[in-house]
Amino acid sequence: MKKLLVSVILFILVAITGAVPIMASTITDAIYMADIRATNASYTAQQVSVPFIWSSQSLLDGYYIDPDFSNLALRDSGGVDIAFMPGYGSNPWMMWVEQINQNSAINYNLYTGGDTAMGGKLAYFPDTAGMRVVDSASLELGNNFEIELSGYINTSSGASKLIIDKGGAYICYPNNAGDVVALIGSAASISQATYYSGTVSNVYGTSWYGQTFIPISDIYVNSITLWCQKILAPSGNFNVYIYAVSGGVPTGTALATGSISASTISGTAGAQTFYLSQSAKLSSGTSYALAVSCPTGDASNYIKVWSKDSNAYASGTKCSSSDSGITWSAGSYDYYFVVGGYTPAVTLTATGIISSDHIIKTVLSGGTISLYVDNILADSAAYAGSVIDNVNDWYFTQNGSMPYLYYAKITVGGVLKGSWEWQYATTFTDLSGNSNDATPSFRTTTTDADVSVAVINYAACNQSAFIVGDDEDAVEIVTDDDLGTMPSGWYGNLHPENLPGGQQITDFLEDMNFPSAFLWLSLAFGGGAIITILSFGLTRKLLPCAVAGLIWQVFWCATIGVPWWVLVPIAVVIIGEMTNRKLASY
Fold first, then answer.
1. Could you tell me the mean pLDDT of each successive run of 10 residues in the chain, 586 residues long?
2. What is the full DSSP assignment across 315-342?
3. Is 115 helix (H, G, I), strand (E, B) or coil?
4. Cβ of 144: how many Cβ atoms within 10 Å?
């Protein structure tokens, strides 16, 4: 009853508030704006990750964005922030389109520049492989830990969606029913651990081999162990797979895969374990198959795999394919195999979680494990044990479980041991300082082939943001505050309407985006110059031409409002000439 009450309260809060609130971006100091258009060529699409082409390096080189990508923000036409990821190297940028109607387009604005951190929804958009962190002693959870992720949780249908997977130890996933499940594992396996030295299969090229089996309880599989040996020097990878079964043989797409360099397999026959890149949940009483391949091996360089010369395993049998797993044939007897994994020691479930931005947090402390969604307790249980310490790596955001991630962090014993977020690099540096760096995969394609995005325009949008960079080549924008003040009283407004037809001429020029003052001031001063030149040409005397210029300027001052101070230099010339004549007469 308590869990039901908590779930109902959580559902109501999420329904009211929707996504986890992310602080709105600040674009006050943005200098540039890109117009971006998303287009849908088919039916209404929802929750789409879409790429668009833009050169991150060019923007960095031109000082349009800061090296830490802090002065960026993407918004829709209503001013709502949109999650996005700048492209690294040749990768495109990615952005999120929550919904776009049939045969329609949506406009967005991407703001850049300025010296203020905008706080845009910068996020990591993973490909299906997600983000991998190599196992280390500092990340072993023990009996006191906290794991927290923030980003978009996708609880819609999909295969093998894993938010977090530490094979055999801890797993968190959306189960396609609006729920998020977190569990701690207890080791389990399915096996047939005998073989005969004279019964082998040579794995290379198109020759694939497999073994069917049936779990007796639900199990999350993360490894396959075979009795095998490298012969000479096979090239490429040795691959392991988990398949569903139909008609007693593997079928469909692999539920999980793993691979290592074939050259690293021991040249001495023995049990060797191969790890899957993700856990696969297998159901009790259902038939499944493991399979192996070495596509670039040949008849001289291959992987030898041993089996038993009898039907030692009652719930399955060997199988083989001569066309790279396209068609299969069931055989006799059984391989030596161990399918390793774990069953849940404790399981927590958060119900009624809609696909949206969320914070997912699992905490084990004081013998109680708890699952929080958006900082609200969703489920808890007693657990007095410690999480299994194994060699399996950490995987995050696999197979569309999280279309984008803001951050992930792991705390052990109250100390931050791993912290990751998007970085402009092929490897995400561990921000906790423990060197548990992450290797991300990056999405580069749209999740809906009918939805595309393009940058339409990129231009200055606000030149009031003044930037002074430490680099001498940095762009500086001059603002009104950096200009000197205009002397008052020296310039006045012109009134060409006082002249016959003056207003009509002014209106015509303004409609042509031509400054009318250029014409009127040219007539005033240029005409005065012409009058004085003509007068001097006729009289060869300074005083008459100065008087003619004075009369011309008085006309323009009196009619259209040319400032009267322009008469001062002409008056000085006239007074000077008259004084000169007066003195010369004595």
1. 42 40 75 95 95 94 92 93 95 97 95 91 96 96 97 88 89 90 90 93 97 92 94 96 96 93 95 88 94 96 95 95 96 94 91 96 97 97 91 92 98 97 97 97 96 94 56 51 47 68 76 73 76 76 76 78 71 67 54
2. T--EEEESSTTSS-EE-SSEE-EEEEEE
3. coil
4. 17
